[in-house]
Write a structure and sequence with these properties.
This protein is α+β, with helices and mostly antiparallel strands. The protein has 4 domains: 6-274, Rossmann fold; 286-350, no CATH class; 363-436, no CATH class; 439-624, Immunoglobulin-like (Sandwich). It is built from 9 helices and 33 strands. A 7-stranded mixed sheet has the order 3-2-1-4-10-12-15, with helices on both faces. The protein has a 6-stranded antiparallel sheet with strand order 17-16-21-18-19-20. Helix 1 (26-39) runs parallel beside helix 4 (229-240) and helix 4 packs across helix 5 (246-258).
């Protein structure tokens, strides 16, 4: 029996022929995804790439235009060429939307659609968005392949529902069009009916965002190269993970996306979620050094100021030097100092220290709301490009959206707002909020940069999470039950973490909570209690969601540092707030000192170059709802 093959159709729609909806990233996305598929073993001859800009694609791939007829023809051809046991991958980067279901197979709802380059507006005569591709059509195609024993993988970097959100003052661009933008009349009534049959067979679909979120594209550090956030993080994960299930790929991609200031959560479904992804990817995290340059750049997660250890060999050995990257392009980077002669490989050892918090220019959510924002505008720093947060003037105060500029993405008032305290001026309130937000966002960036994104190792500490749901308005909590991230938590709910040291070394464990308002709160240890776990030892840690909390996306951070059983205790809760960090000048462990150095780029170095221990981090996203579910 021959080896199972993987065939692929890669689509990137940047230039729309009729719609005024051009995007800058899909052609780059298609190029990056094609490179990633080749790296994982897909033969270029088995791949069709339909893109607005075919330059720079791997040699040997078939190319074409990302229009409806060619997309459907390519899907049919690759599925027909696949044998039972083979895999067909469909990747799409571009706009998505919804349209009224006129066939009745959605039960009287709406069809999800993707928009090829030749998509136009709603045509009443045909009862459809002309040249759009409906989810019904993709399902028929997928079921035809699945019925023959072919596996199907779908990777979609586009909005797949009508969220109704509006990006305000953002640098990023949303990949979704509202029905109004497609000329769909308000009085079109979907046809009543019954939902069609579910797919059967071996498939997995990964989506760039939840059904009630939008997907975005952003410029990279060079300001000229745009990529879909989901595609960029997914490609980085697939390239650097030799063996992982699709669920692990999704989790790692989600974590990488959560490290930024945009709260966009990808989603996944299908029987193959727990199956190993096709191919193997890169065997290690070292990249070649050629002609004095490091052969990895912005697309591989590198950045100006990152530290790279250089080696003589592709694996093992001692580092010859640790150098800092500069002149970072999308695919390679220079060094800030001469290379040792024997240096042929490099490995990222630390992300750069965070830049100062950057705000976009303040924008008004509603020009006719009647409030005077002069004092707030005067209190806010001037806006700049590459913003972490977007100040939005609304309801007489200031709300802060992420870089996507979406106000209240998780429900009413889910974007943090400044509430003036008695005798507090807008300037004082803004300074207090930005101080805490800058510290929280920077600490998250430093911890993420210190722990990396590889799935090649085994985490030394594991976590299980249970929930006690509060009854009514913060009444008695219910029975302990496994936590379901899809259902989220409500104010006054309790979460209980069981932490177990499954590694072979003693670990000092700290637990922090990152709120939707960008504040970091210390959870455990408390009261100077011991946080040291010997191999095989477990502990229980509880936390309660505060009463009055508003909906939003929050995070639990579990940090583990291997230690000598007789060495100084590492308690990273001391990094939770700026005043705690400043007040604790007596840290003696290398990890705390190193992280403090990274948090303060102006501080004189204490002599640590490489991070002193393999810090591990478990990041659990918590979707806070407005009430119990």
């Amino acid at each position: 029996m021959g080896r199972a093959e993987v065939r692929a159709v890669v689509v990137g729609v940047g230039n729309y022929l009729t719609l005024d909806a051009d995007l800058k990233g899909p052609a780059n996305d298609a190029r990056l995804m094609a490179e990633t598929l080749v790296l994982r073993g897909v033969a270029p001859a088995d791949m069709t790439v339909l893109t607005s800009d075919p330059t720079g694609l791997p040699a040997g791939v078939a190319v074409g235009k990302p229009v409806r007829e060619e997309i459907l023809a390519a899907l049919a051809a690759e599925a027909d060429a696949a044998a039972p046991g083979d895999t067909v991958v469909f990747y799409f980067s571009g706009h998505g939307s919804q349209a009224p279901d006129m066939s009745g197979d959605e039960g009287g709802g709406y069809d999800e659609i993707i928009l090829p380059a030749d998509a136009t507006n709603w045509k009443g005569a045909i009862g459809a968005v002309e040249n759009a591709i409906l989810d019904d059509e993709l399902q028929v195609w997928a079921q035809g392949a699945l019925s023959r024993g072919v596996k199907v993988v779908g990777l979609i970097d586009a909005c797949h529902s009508d969220t109704g959100f509006r990006a305000i003052g953002a640098e990023g661009v949303a990949r979704g069009l509202d029905p109004e933008a497609l000329g769909i009349p308000d009085d079109v009534v979907p046809v009543a009916g019954h939902e069609g049959p579910a797919l059967t067979g071996d498939f997995v679909f990964l989506y760039s965002s939840q059904s009630d979120q939008r997907s975005f594209e952003y410029p990279l550090e060079d300001g000229a190269t745009w990529q879909g956030e989901f595609t960029l993080r997914l490609a980085q994960t697939l390239q650097t993970v030799p063996e992982a299930s699709w669920a692990q790929v999704l989790a790692a991609t989600t974590e990488a996306m959560a490290q930024g200031s945009v709260r966009q959560m990808p989603d996944g479904e299908g029987p193959l979620l727990d199956a190993q992804a096709f191919g193997t990817g890169q065997a290690n995290l070292r990249f070649p050094v050629e002609g004095g340059r490091f052969m990895a750049g912005l697309l591989q997660g590198m950045a100006t100021g990152a530290e790279v250890a250089v080696y003589a060999d592709p694996a093992g050995g001692e580092p010859l030097a640790v150098l800092t990257l500069d002149d970072v392009s999308p695919r390679d980077a220079g060094f800030d100092a001469p290379l040792p002669e024997a240096a042929l490989w490099g490995e990222l050892v630390a992300a750069p220290p965070p830049e100062p918090l950057a705000l976009a220019a303040a924008v008004r959510a509603d020009e006719s709301d009647g409030f005077d924002y002069a004092d707030w505008i005067a209190a806010l720093p001037p806006g700049e490009g590459g913003a972490d947060l977007v100040p939005i003037l609304t309801e007489g105060t200031v709300a802060f959206a992420g870089a996507d500029g979406v106000l209240d993405p998780e429900g009413p008032r889910s974007s943090p707002r400044i509430t003036l305290q008695p005798d507090e001026s807008p300037a004082e309130a803004v300074d207090q909020f930005l101080t805490l937000a800058a510290h929280g966002l920077h600490l998250r960036e430093v911890l993420s940069g210190a722990t990396g994104r590889s799935l090649t190792g085994t985490a030394p500490v594991t976590m299980t999470l249970d929930r006690r749901a509060a009854a009514g308005a913060c009444g008695k909590v219910g029975e302990l039950a496994p936590f379901d991230p899809d259902h989220g938590v409500a104010p006054c709910d309790q979460l209980w973490l069981t932490l177990t040291n499954t590694g072979g070394k003693t670990q000092d464990v700290s637990v922090l909570y990152f709120s939707a308002a960008y504040e970091v709160q210390p959870i455990w240890p408390a009261g100077n209690m011991s946080n040291r776990l010997a191999p095989g030892e477990s502990t229980r840690v509880g936390l309660q969601i505060e009463a009055g909390s508003t909906a939003g996306l929050e995070e639990i951070w579990v940090l583990a540092v291997p230690v000598d059983p007789d060495g100084p205790r590492v308690d990273l809760t001391r990094l939770a707030a700026p005043e705690m960090t400043r007040a604790y000048a007596g840290a003696s462990d290398e990890m705390t000192l190193w992280l403090e150095d990274r948090m303060d780029p102006e501080a004189a170095s204490r002599g640590f170059t490489l991070k002193p221990a393999p810090l591990s981090m478990i990041r659990q996203l918590v979707r806070l709802t407005s009430g119990s579910e």
